[in-house]
Amino acid sequence: MKKVISLMILLLIFITATFFGCASIQKKIDTSSLSGVAKDIQEDFRPGNPEDLRNLIKDFSLETETRPLFLNDIKVEPLDRWEIKHPLGKDLIMEKISFPSLITHEKGFDRAVFYIYRSPEWKDKDVILWAPGMAVSDFAFHLIKHFFDEEIKRDYNIVFYVPPFHLERTEEGKENSEGLFTADVERNVKVFLNTVRELRTISEYLRGEGVQNIGGWGGSIGATMLLLTSQMVDLDHLCIMIPILDWGTVLLNKEHMGEVVSRLGENGFDEILIRGAYDLINPVQYELNMNPERIHVMYGEYDQLTPPDVIIEYAQNNGISKISSYERSHATILLTRKLYQDYGLFLDTLK
To answer: What are phi and psi of 105, to 5 degrees?
Structure first.
């Protein structure tokens, strides 16, 4: 997304918001983000073929469409970014794991990438599989590492997933996150299914290294990825922050995506077809496949991408009782110190 507001700017806006209409300004940041996505989709409007989308929906299997690949093509090398130190002064190995991806850029196939923070041995160590949200950046790391500290202090190893079109997976000549969503619904769904494939692939790799327990932390679209992954991968626990639970609240949003949906309709994609396609990757369409007592939900009271009532209803329908709310929007929730403290307390309940 070309016009994604950097977290540094968000921080400045947030400081201003504490004095001038905090809630309204935070909501505005969210809606501006939605408008930016819509604008990017409009600028390169290539919607694809509606018949191809119908064929994807027909006889769809989440397990088949996300089956792990490339376990024999995994590359391990030193991590050259996002360096951290063990908060307790212990040894910490930092690596980057990569393998081929079925996600393509203009110039060919991408590679799946994971940042590793671990003790000298994988075997018998608990791992937290990390899936961040859209527009995760080098600046975001300065906030994300507070979560890392809480995990490492409790003896977890961390496996951080780099989403496609982000960080070193950014397409050449484009901005971080640009290209993740396009007018081509079939392509969008397939990209997302391949993120789940990549998370399943790394999970199999970890099992092969002797890891017994894999938990998860997912933010925004990362939460969506992990909820779908949990349909096939046995996750020990899961923390989901500002989760996208229904793509209709984002990509079919009438106020911000109305013109995009209208143009898709003109090209043979009626709203029923579009909704049916996104339902393939909507967590609300799947029965929860893990112990709800080992799930923690964090949401923003001003969230404009996934409204609080959608999150609360999802939690209630699935028996999830550990829910924390914050007076923040989707884009500003990481600017909350209590968020990291609450996460540490959640981890303490698991051991």
So the answer is: -105, 180
